[in-house]
Design a protein that fits this description.
It is a single chain. The chain has helices at residues 9-19, 23-45, 53-56, 81-89, 105-112, 115-131; strands at residues 59-60, 64-66, 69-71, 74-75. The protein has 132 residues and is mainly alpha-helical. The chain has one domain (9-131). The strands form two sheets. It has a two-stranded antiparallel ribbon with strand order 1-4. The relative contact order is 0.19.
């Protein structure tokens, strides 16, 4: 289990209060930036590459707010969705050029290390920009 300490919690809460209903504006760009970094890592280091079709199908959608949660979807596929799923899940495939199975799961798990700190720094910066 990961643990982290958030210092300056009172200041953070006060700044969110000042933002009012716009607190999602401070969080959403940070989440998208994190998702884009994960996608870049996946494409460069994990996705199986033969002709590059799967690699080029990677996407990161804009953040969406649903009640009090913010979601950023990232994935592979589009027209190659069925192919992307098979390549992601089949551990027995041979990938002679680059990458392998779990090409999105592995960079997501790697990104968990340090994610609270990265997001915290980005959100602080965005709050500062918004409340000025």
């Amino acid at each position: 289990m990961s643990e982290f300490t958030l210092e300056g919690l009172q200041e953070l809460l006060a700044n969110f209060e000042r933002l009012g209903g716009n607190s999602a504006e401070a969080i959403a760009p940070s989440l998208k930036e994190e998702a884009e970094a994960i996608m870049t890592d996946s494409k460069q280091n994990y996705v199986p590459v033969d002709q590059g079709i799967l690699q080029s199908s990677g996407y990161v959608n804009d953040p969406e707010t649903h009640g009090d949660s913010i979601e950023v979807e990232l994935g592979f596929g589009g027209a190659a969705k069925d192919y992307a799923i098979v390549q992601h899940e089949r551990l027995d495939f041979n990938h002679p050029h680059q990458g392998g199975a779990k090409y999105l799961e592995r960079p997501m798990m790697a990104a968990e290390r340090g994610m609270p700190e990265r997001l915290g720094q980005r959100i602080w910066a965005e709050i500062g920009r918004l409340i000025r």
